Amino acid sequence: MTHDKRPLSPHLQIYRWQITMLMSILHRGSGILLSLGAIFLVYWLVMLAMGGQAYETTRAQLASVPGQACLLVFCAALYYHLCNGIRHLAWDAGAGFEMQTVRRSGWAVFIATVVLTGATWLLAGDPGA
């Protein structure tokens, strides 16, 4: 068996991180988080159908600090995936491929995610009450 002296593909360590790389990774990650959140939503609905005691236990879990953290992460993942998906739809239509536009739309997705998540939590009030 002979070994070619061809160079290997570059690894991530030699690439300079760019917003497009980060957004691609986060889009996949947010999709995974949304899938896990959907499983938890089914759990919540089953507890709701099981009656008051089961639902009250689930409500108490959601009102706890870890439960609130999970809800916050799920909410942020939902808004990030939505906003970045809209960005991808614009790309599918052939718009926004200039590098400056790509960077600006990337930052707009991050800002929109923070604003929408914050607005949701401010307007929703205390979900544990």
Would you kindly provide a brief summary of this structure?
The protein is mostly helical.
Key terms:
129 residues; mainly alpha; 0% strand
Report what the structure shows.
It is a single chain. This protein is mostly helical. The chain is built from 4 helices and no strands. Helix 1 packs antiparallel against helix 2 (52-63), helix 1 crosses helix 3 (65-92) and helix 3 runs antiparallel to helix 4. The longest helix has 32 residues, at 19-50. The relative contact order is 0.12.
- Tell me the series of helices and strands, N- to C-terminal: HHHH
Structural class: mainly alpha
Quick one: biggest sheet? Answer: none
Distance between the termini: 69 Å
Annotation, overall tally of beta strands: 0
Mean pLDDT: 91
Radius of gyration: 20 Å
List the helices and strands and how they pair.
Layout: H1 19-50, H2 52-63, H3 65-92, H4 99-124
